[in-house]
């Protein structure tokens, strides 16, 4: 079996593929493949490991010979799963292994915004570290505040666990369905979306991007949040409306925002949000630790190897026909 990999991933997974007797070709250029290049690269491949490429219906139809597609991500909003299912192509992802590192990033952004860290850092470079004023540059204490989680799955659970442990924060959440483990272990309380907006001191987004969650955080949502609230998004940039977020921050409707995801990505270097106080932005590095990226690489490879050996992928998104 021949596997095409759309960009260099950690060696551990590539080695697993080779040890299993599979032939591996890695796209070496540091740029996305065009649709034509991707289709042609997959022409003589039996399986694909895709990192950072959109896989649409046209791609699926052109590459219906693929026996397996393994995503090097947990998110699959940029992949036409229905088309893959129609063509009988199993598609796998990498859940679980990135929950801690992604939650760490949300936690980092929350603290950075609470203490205006990114902006304060820049003031030093501008020569603005001058006279000490006891009433200037004041941040927020997080102890005892209320954390609201939008989408309490594996990553949201980790974020809630960290915030409870470190700051004794109360946890409220809004989900498609209640999360019993979080209610039992973290005393998390299920609330409506409106209650989540109104009662969260920190509101952290951990849901998938779907038609239902796209632009869920818009002007009307931000207007319901507390003036002292912190908005954190480490899930997908299209879950919030960036212009509405910027306006809400400018008008003081909210305290600040921490984003690891934007729309589009990459964010333009001259985006005004980058220079705003109480805003912390990272370039989608939630899962970017050596341990996590190694685990993701292994999981993606294991999903392909399973199919090559006639087994079902351990993490197959379209295992059930209704996905
Ligand atoms: C994921 O795995 O979906 C992360 O966002 C990394 O892309």
UniProtKB/TrEMBL annotation:
One of its GO terms (molecular function) is glyoxylate reductase (NADPH) activity. One of its GO terms (cellular component) is cytosol. Keywords: NAD, Oxidoreductase. The keyword Transit peptide does not apply. Pfam families: 2-Hacid_dh, 2-Hacid_dh_C. Residues 3-318 form the D-isomer specific 2-hydroxyacid dehydrogenase catalytic domain. Residues 109-286 form the D-isomer specific 2-hydroxyacid dehydrogenase NAD-binding domain. Belongs to the D-isomer specific 2-hydroxyacid dehydrogenase family. This is Hydroxyacid dehydrogenase. It comes from Pedobacter antarcticus 4BY.
């Amino acid at each position: 079996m021949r596997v095409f990999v759309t960009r260099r991933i950690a060696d551990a997974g590539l080695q697993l593929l080779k040890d299993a007797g599979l032939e591996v070709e890695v796209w070496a250029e540091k740029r996305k493949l065009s649709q034509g290049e991707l289709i042609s690269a997959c022409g003589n491949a039996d399986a694909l490991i895709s990192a950072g490429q959109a896989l649409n219906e046209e791609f699926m139809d052109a590459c219906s010979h693929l026996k397996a597609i393994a995503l090097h991500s947990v998110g699959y909003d940029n992949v036409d799963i229905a088309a893959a299912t129609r063509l009988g192509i199993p598609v796998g992802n990498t859940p679980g292994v990135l929950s801690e590192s992604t939650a760490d990033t949300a936690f980092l952004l929350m603290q950075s915004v609470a203490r205006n860290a990114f902006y304060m850092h820049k003031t030093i470079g501008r020569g603005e570290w001058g006279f000490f004023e006891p009433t200037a540059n004041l941040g927020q204490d997080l102890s005892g505040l209320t954390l609201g989680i939008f989408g309490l799955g594996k990553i949201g659970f980790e974020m809630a666990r960290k915030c409870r442990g470190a700051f004794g924060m109360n946890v409220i959440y809004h989900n498609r369905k209640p999360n019993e483990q979080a209610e039992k272990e973290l005393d998390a309380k299920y609330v409506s979306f409106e209650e989540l907006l109104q009662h969260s001191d920190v509101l952290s987004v951990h849901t998938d991007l779907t038609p239902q969650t796209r632009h869920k955080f818009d002007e009307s949502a931000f207007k319901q949040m507390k003036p002292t609230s912190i908005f954190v998004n480490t899930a997908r940039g299209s879950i919030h409306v960036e212009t509405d977020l910027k306006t809400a921050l400018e008008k003081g409707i909210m305290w600040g925002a921490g984003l690891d995801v934007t729309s589009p990505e990459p964010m333009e270097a001259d985006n005004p949000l980058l220079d705003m106080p109480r805003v912390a932005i990272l370039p989608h590095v939630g899962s970017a630790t050596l341990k996590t990226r190694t685990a993701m690489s292994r999981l993606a490879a294991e999903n392909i190897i399973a199919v090559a050996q006639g087994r079902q992928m351990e993490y197959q998104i379209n295992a059930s026909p209704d996905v």
